[in-house]
Amino acid sequence: MSLSRNSLFSVLMLVAAFALTALAADPPDSLTLTDGEKLTGKFVRAAGGSVVFHSDVVGDVTVPWAKVKELTASGRFAVIPKGFRFHRHETDGRIPIGTLSVADQKIQVTPMPGQPAQTFATDMTGFVVSESEYQAAQKNMSFFEAWKGSLTGGVALVDATQTSETFTSAVHLNRAVPTQAWLSARRRTLINFTSSYGKITQPNTPEVKTNLLHFDGEEDEYFSARGYFLGQAGFDHNYSQGLNLQQTYSGGAGWSVIKNDTQTFDLKATVSYIRQSFTVGSNDKNLVGSIFNETYHRKLPLGIVFDEQITFIPAWNNTNAYSANGGAGITMALYKRLSLNVSMLDTFLNDPPTGFKKNSFQFTTGVTYTLP
Q1: Do 167 and 63 belong to one domain?
Q2: Containing H/E element for 260?
């Protein structure tokens, strides 16, 4: 079977189009190490004194700048110096953007062909990010974007001579603005909710009930890389301690003592108004006090995450009405975004109504889903 002249012309045009597309495509990036090894693929980013490079053969590779002999990248990147403090919208051209080449521990940025290049020492460079990521960081986000966190649920049922049921849940959400690690923190929102409900019944025996609820929200406004002002609101119900509702409204400051990809450690102090309503009305209180809090978060090997927090709440107008709580938990990866959570929480209330214990202890297990 023979091709017509028109068909042959169409095939040749198609081949020519593919050839032109291949020629127009960006050539692969290359990374040459000080020991002579050369990788081809795509330059991803640089941060924390290291380069992230996607090799066509071995995947993502992280290499310290000190071990980079040469690097060429065909895309356009923004080079951000160490310690650079961003304004809300960085549009005055102080950040160089262009194609990159690296040699002798120096980064050369060429904005456009024919324009003068700028050179930076690698040890004075904080971050190198793609132009698209840099431009995306300049856009405003709605309140419903960039939320991260986890959802946890657990249940235990017994049906025998003694019947019992226990339900636990927890929601932990956080939203940091901006989301990019190379931008200075401006704002953070935290929302937490936990509940534990249990009931035990047995013939000819009074029913035993447990009902604990906690909700809090916090808004942080950063005045430096680690320091921030904060506002808080919290609501608690603890049937076991005779507490119908505790309302807490606070304002103060916090400090991120440790803040990196592996762990965070925060200290907070506030001035607070606390309203306590008990099952026994004569125990109701209006308190002026403070909240002193520390929280620690640590990522461990094998997808394990450890969280811990301690809170002490003194009341200045009634020194006998202090309270405290402390908790710790471990989350272990199971499958994709599902994890096993094991946690405990101890709540202490120094002046509950007569007949109620001061201490309330919870030990819970459940399945956790981590938000994308």
Answers
A1: no
A2: none
Are 176 and 146 in contact by the 8 Å Cβ rule? The answer is yes
Residue 49: closest CA among 192, 260, 303, 254: 260
For residue 284 the two structure tokens come to: 């109701």
How far apart CA 10 and CA 219 sit, in angstroms, is 63
Beta bridge partners of 320: none
Based on the structure, what is the number of domains in the chain?
A: 2
Range of the domain at 79: 26-136
Beta partners for residue 337, in sequence order: none
Same-domain status, 331 and 225: yes
Beta bridge pairs of residue 285? 276
0.85 exceeded by pTM: no
Verify that 235 and 108 share a domain, yes or no.
no
Based on the fold, state whether residues 169 and 122 are members of the same structural domain.
no
Per residue in 112-143, pLDDT (tens digit) is 776 788 888 988 888 899 888 888 777 777 88
Sign of CA dihedral 200, 171, 242, 309: positive
Q: What is the radius of gyration, based on Cα positions, of the chain?
A: 29
**Is residue 266 located within the same domain as residue 299?**
yes
